[in-house]
Amino acid sequence: MVVNAARGRAAQTPARVPGARPSEAIVWHDLECGSYRADLPLWRELAASARPAAPARLLEIGSGTGRVALALAREGHHVTALDRDAELLRALSERAATAGLGTLETVCADARTFALEREDYAACLVPMQTLQLLGAGAGRRAFLRRARAHLRTGGLLACAIVTEVEPFDCTAGELGPSPDVVRVGGASYVSRPTRVRIERRVVRIERERSIVVDARAGASGGRRAGAPRSPAPAARRDVVELHRVSVARLRREGREAGFAPEGSREVPATAEHTGSAVVMFRA
What's the rounded Cα separation, in Å, for the pair 184 and 209? Predict the structure, then answer.
């Protein structure tokens, strides 16, 4: 999710993750994406409208650990959660099983080449600029053709894209957003947005990730009173590139893939995150 260059934003209170320590990939994904909520009302609305008389059969692209898929499955919808990261999908499957959500299934596949048994989905939802992670126009067009092949006649495709971004650069002395922090076992995971740079073809989002481990954490992951922390490790740099696309261009590409454009909706910006345009089509 694209962060806003909010000034004077209060630092987050460190959250705690219960249970056994998950893998680093899962922790980072949950920390940087899992708390976002601004778009959930719209995805719930679109899912409900896809089949008003009954729970909809939905396909979600770029599900990760299940921020959207779990919310929709809890509404009673049948959700196929697709992502190319098997590790994140394993976490999603475990969470669905723990919650008793038998209407949720996962598929590990690339959004540009997937081929599923079902071709009658009522809606295909693409949250959090996942579409812009698929490369330039060829990647988007490949996905659009795959989505069209899996939707029933009249089915809905809704894709969130970011078009207006506020750049910032902490390396140049700008304040930037406060870090996201989560406590897992005997370690604190810190993700600090450092730069958003707008280039001709892409938006580059850069973060620094660091893990601070308690020096004398017990086997249970706790830390004895007065025990020091280990020295702060060097931060690792994480870079995400979102390929830029306008609403008008995406609509043209949708028409080429056999869709009929059907307006767009807006996800409002928050103090921490940039807003999105949700571009919609009918199969």
Answer: 14
* Cα(5)–Cα(104) distance, integer angstroms: 36
Going by their DSSP bridges, the two strands 260-267 and 57-61 should be labelled as unpaired
Amino acid occupying residue 75: E
User: What pLDDT does 272 receive?
Assistant: 79
CB atoms within 10 A of CB 161: 24
232 pLDDT above the threshold of 80: no
CA-CA distance, 257 to 37, in Å (whole number)?
Answer: 31
User: pTM higher than 0.85 for the full model?
Assistant: yes
pLDDT band of residue 218 (cuts 50, 70, 90) is very low
DSSP-based three-state secondary structure for 174 = coil
CA 206 to chain centre: 16
What's the rounded Cα separation, in Å, for the pair 41 and 28? 24
Q: Which domains does the chain have, with CATH numbers?
A: 15-21+165-242 (no CATH), 36-163+245-282 (3.40.50.150)
For residue 171, the 8-state DSSP code is G
Q: What is the pLDDT of residues 65-117, one digit of tens each?
A: 999 999 999 999 999 999 999 999 999 999 999 999 999 999 999 999 999 99
Q: Are 51 and 155 in contact (CB under 8 A)?
A: no
For residues 217 and 203, give the distance between their C-alpha atoms in angstroms, rounded to a whole number: 40
Determine phi and psi for 224, rounding to 5 degrees: -65, 145
Q: Is the sign of the CA dihedral 129, 274, 189, 19 positive or negative?
A: negative
- For the stretch 155-173, pLDDT in tens is 999 999 998 888 899 988 8
DSSP state of 11: P
Read off the pLDDT of each residue in 35-47 and give the average, rounded to a whole number: 96
